[in-house]
Amino acid sequence: MTGPLVVLVGPMGAGKSTVGAILAERLGVTCRDTDQDVAEQAGKSVSDIFLEEGEPHFRELERAAVATALGEHGGVLALGGGAVLAEETRALLAGRPVVFLEMGLTEAVKRVGLDAPRPLLVINPRQQWRRLMEERRPLYTEVARVVVSTEDRTPDQVADEILTALQLPSTQPEKQQ
Fold first, then answer.
1. Which of 58, 76, 133, 142 is deepest in the core (most CB within 10 A)?
2. Hey, which residues does 102 pair with through a beta bridge?
């Protein structure tokens, strides 16, 4: 099966973009983010798509962006936090090197602040984050070959664990901790 060397899934703020960039550098490939793909295709931010056209429209764009990226990108791929909600996306992820970047609410508060412009966290962000994770955690786990906690760890430490777990050869020397 061709496609990405690593696919990162997990909640907003888990570090998919940051860790993805580090992995891509170490593997000598590029990193692609499906939220960026959607925003570029739509000509507006993900938040604006949610607000102006609604979540169902965004999810349609997201499903198409993920399918395209899985078919044509050979580097590191970071998926939006809700991409796993689509059954067809989960089916496309089967058998791929998917890594679930896991973190708890306390870490999410530290990283996201839960007051950032995140459309799904507008009202009662802590409760919304908990609800989203209750809904999504089983789906992240279902598609993941590897689960890596990002709690109290640097992005470099997370990248190290992913490379080891997936037995991927780094072209860059590991960073000193």
1. 76
2. 149
- How is residue 64 written in tokens? 């198409």
Whether the Cβ atoms of residue 109 and residue 60 lie closer than 8 Å to each other: no
- Asked if 51 contacts 6 with a C-beta cutoff of 8 angstroms, the reply is no
Q: What is the pLDDT of residues 78-128, one digit of tens each?
A: 999 999 999 999 999 999 999 999 986 556 555 555 444 555 455 566 677
Q: 3-class secondary structure for the chain?
A: CCCCCEEEECCCCCCHHHHHHHHHHHHCCCEEEHHHHHHHHHCCCHHHHHHHHCHHHHHHHHHHHHHHHHHHCCCEEECCCCHHHCHHHHHHHCCCCEEEEECCHHHHHHHHCCCCCCHHHCCCHHHHHHHHHHHHHHHHHHHCCEEEECCCCCHHHHHHHHHHHCCCCCCCCCCCC
Rounded distance between C-alpha atoms, residue 103 and residue 93, angstroms:
21
Residue pair 87/143 in contact by the 8 Å Cβ criterion: no
Written as six digits, the tokens of 70 are 């899985």
Distance CA 8, CA 99 (A): 5
Does the pTM surpass 0.85? The reply is: yes
